[in-house]
Amino acid sequence: MRLRYELPAAAAAALTEALDGHEASGSHVRYAVPADLTADGAFGDGWTVATDALVAVQAPGARGWRTLPLRQVGRFRADNMVGSGRLVAEPASNGTGGAAHEQILAHYSMSHAPRYATLARGLNLLLDGKRPTVDETPDEGVCPTCGRRREPGTRVCRACTNRAAMMRRLWALARGHLRWVVAAVALFAAFTLLSLLPPQLTRVLIDNHLVPRRPHLQPILLLVGALAVTYGLTALTDALRGRAMAQLSNALARDLRSMVYTNVQKLSLGYLGTRDAGDILNRVSKDTRNIQQFINFWLTDSVAQGLFLVGVAVILFLREWRLAVLVLAPLPVVVLLAGGVWGHVRFLFRRQERLFDKVDTLLQDILSGIRVVKAFGRERAEVGRFRARSGELREVMRANERTWANLVPLWSFVMRAGEFLVFAVGGYLVLGDRMKLGELVQFVQYAMLLYGPLVWIAGLPRRFAESMTAAERVFEVIDEQPSVADAARPRRLPIAGHVRFEEVVFGYQSHDPVLHEVSLEVAPGEMIGIVGHSGSGKSTLINLLMRLYDPDEGRIIVDGVDLRAIELRDLHRQLGVVLQETFLFAGSIAENIAYAQPGATPRQLIAAAKVAGAHDFICAFPDGYDTRVGERGQRLSGGERQRVAIARAVLHDPRILILDEATASVDTETEEVIQAGLFQLMKGRTTFAIAHRLSTLRHADRLLVLDKGRIAEVGSHAELMAAGGIYHGLVQSQRRMNRHHAL
Questions:
Q1: What is the C-alpha separation between 76 and 689, in angstroms, rounded?
Q2: What is the DSSP string of 67-112?
Q3: Average pLDDT, whole number, for the chain?
Q4: What is the DSSP letter of 294?
Q5: pLDDT > 60? residue 97
Q6: Spatial CB neighbours of 513, under 8 Å, sequence gap ≥ 6
Q7: Which residues contact 498 (CB under 8 A, 6 or more apart)?
Q8: What is the 3-state secondary structure (H, E, C) of 699-715?
Q9: Is residue 589 within 8 Å of 625, Cβ to Cβ?
Q10: Can you say whether the dihedral through the CA atoms of 259, 262, 264, 268 is positive or negative?
Q11: In the β-sheet with 29-34, what is the strand arrangement from edge to edge?
Q12: Backbone angles phi, psi at 263, to 5 degrees
């Protein structure tokens, strides 16, 4: 995110003049961002600049700068409203001579809202005596190389895409299957040579035997037989070539699918959370299939047709260069037409792929929530929504097909124009006895063979654009680096469970923190209950502990080691998690429990299920532990899914246990059974538990109360009830609710 814009010369000169006469102005400009709105909401060119000691603002249309020393300000905040925002300075309460009321310093459009949120946060850190770091990452949606706006839904810049480099990457993959590449090239060469023979045999047949009317049948039969053998060998070579390329293309597609899927597994939630499921799915399957088809059909044919084109052209020029020039005369026109539509074609295919992603995402979303759809009787509405999205895709695909329906016949006609000239000029030469009939027939045959590659090449831009779009999307995922990754030399650490949060700040968007300066120390084996209103940051706290994300500021220490220094696989091997959203994989109950420990014995699976209170209901199924749970576990009730998920965590035997609403989906009787098992599991393990029913946290060693991302209260149940604060209010509210339900 760009936070240091280059000021226009006049504004920079006026700023220098304003700062020169200002005491303690601070020499280092930390932030310089546009203030592009007036107080009346009109667009203009203004600026907000911050140094270590003051804020300077030039309103749109103004020449001078307004300065405000930081020592006169209590806090800064960025207020986002409808369509605009403003930077506000709250008054200081330390008697430093500042204003007694809030001051509106700058107005901005929502495109700059993230920058002003970051600016306000950085200024507040300066007020607290800290030094903010300015992360100058590129603007989202803007190419860092050329500065152009990228197309929505992609990090690839169309203007900067190097298609030659893309082909080199595909070739690098192909080198891993070199024997099939060599076989395909050899078969291409053989196919080309065999395809060039029939016109030669035809010329000899006409000029040496048919036109002179020589009554010798044997040479005629030999020539006809040679033609038949040549065509047969050509067909055989073509079939072998197709098999070799099918082997090569399928191997490459498998490699690409594996590379994409492997990297998807490595990518952080911060990236995956911004991508639609249909987008990721299409890159793994549909895009790799498009590349496979391009390699199998179009790339192979491009090599064959290219060799064929060169061979025919050489023969034509050797036989009669003047006629050869007439044959090739339309080629520059075809090249110009292809080059003219190339950019438009790529744009259409990119747009088509984005709409395919949206359609697939919508379909997956509807099918995943089909119970909700039917429960609310929204079938017709969802059909209408899907029809509307499919209609958008139809219009784009129709535009694509219309483009080619118009261009391909035009190309074919232009290229065939050379054939008319050959017949006219060649016929004239035959009538004047300057060319034999067989030579003309041979020339026309070669010309017609030449037009085949040219017509094929005319359609290549479409397939090439489609495949390059797919390759861009595939390599974009392959090249994406996870934001949460192992250190250069990660440590393997037997975890005892001593956890310490040190001034942790985090936001899913860095300019909008969810957690603010959270500090907490947890002893090994201690149980910490985490409570607070919705949106207070409870799940975010445990997401950081699981290292699904890294803190923006501060650090998390486990047994004296920074969490970022521990090998991710080793860390997750020692964490046990029961998340708020229970997820089961399509498979059997036994397979879902054993997911935490694939080599577990049946005895271990049963023991874990008993601890989770799941053994009895599993045995009640006809297939017991082999019962299929269906997609996302939909064949089980919510409580049954939750107990299977708890059994999975029990089997994992973690050193740190994380329970996010672990008993939210079970009734009171089942909850008591599960709680008894969980208490046994928690012995000797550091436990972080989030619970909606606060009564389940009574036995926690300490309760952590979060409020708007900050730690508001810490203590035991008795201590917090006696304090009469936020926790006391939550408990009383829940008691009133329970009494209401009891009535």
A1: 35
A2: EEEGGGEEEEEEEE-SSEEEEEEEEPSS-SS--SS-EEEEEEEGGG
A3: 79
A4: I
A5: no
A6: 121, 505, 506, 507, 552, 709
A7: 522, 523, 524, 557, 558, 559, 560, 686
A8: CCCEEEEEECCEEEEEE
A9: yes
A10: negative
A11: 29-34, 47-51, 54-58, 66-69
A12: -75, -35
Identify whether the C-beta of residue 126 lies closer than 8 Å to the C-beta of residue 142. Answer: no
Confidence of residue 215 (pLDDT cuts 50, 70, 90): low
Q: Dump pLDDT digits (tens) for 587-599.
A: 888 988 888 888 8
pLDDT, residue 366, reads 76
Q: CA-to-CA distance for 140 and 511, rounded, in angstroms?
A: 13
- Which pTM does this prediction carry? 0.68
Long-range Cβ contact pairs of 331-337 (< 8 A, separation 24 or more): 331/415, 331/454, 333/414, 334/411, 334/414, 334/415, 334/454, 334/457, 334/458, 337/407, 337/410, 337/411, 337/414
Q: What does the alpha-carbon distance between residue 695 and residue 100 come to, in Å, rounded to a whole number?
A: 46
Say how far residue 299 (Cα) sits from the centre of its chain. Answer: 27
Please give the Cα distance from 330 to 314 (Å, whole number): 17
Task: Report which listed range, 434-438, 521-525, 690-694, is most confident.
Answer: 521-525
Single out the residue of 454, 356, 457, 336 nearest to residue 400, CA to CA.
356
Q: Taking the alpha carbons of 545, 550, 551, 556 in that order, is the dihedral positive or negative?
A: positive
Q: Which residues contact 199 (CB under 8 A, 6 or more apart)?
A: 441, 442, 445, 446, 449
Task: Specify the pLDDT at position 702.
Answer: 92
Residue 54, classed as helix, strand or coil, is strand
Of 96 and 305, the structure prediction assigns the larger pLDDT to 305
Cα–Cα nearest to 583, from 372, 368, 370, 284: 368
**Which is nearest to 241 in space by CA: 293, 175, 181?**
181
CA neighbor of 474 nearest in space, from 302, 631, 292, 718: 292
SS3 720: helix
Question: For residue 135, which of 507, 578, 439 has the smallest C-alpha distance?
Answer: 507
How sure is the predictor about 563, in pLDDT bands with cuts at 50, 70 and 90? very high
Q: Pick the closest to residue 176 from 252, 95, 289, 79 (CA basis).
A: 252
Tell me the longest C-alpha to C-alpha distance in the chain: 123
CB-based contact 145:157 (threshold 8 Å): yes
Question: Confidence class of residue 326 from pLDDT cuts 50, 70 and 90?
Answer: confident
Contact 31, 76 (CB under 8 A): no
Nearest one of 37, 82, 93, 28 to 61, comparing CA atoms: 37
Can you read off the two tokens belonging to residue 201?
Answer: 């045999």
pLDDT digits 0-9 by tens, 264-303: 777 777 667 666 666 777 777 777 777 777 776 666 666 6
* Planar angle of CA 535, 536, 539, nearest 5 degrees: 80
| Percent of all residues in the chain with a pLDDT value above 70, rounded to a whole number | 78
The mean pLDDT value for 439-464 works out to 68
End-to-end CA distance of the chain: 55
Q: What is the DSSP string of 587-627?
A: SBHHHHHGGG-TT--HHHHHHHHHHTT-HHHHHHSTTGGG-
Report pLDDT digits (tens) over 55-73: 999 999 888 888 888 888 9
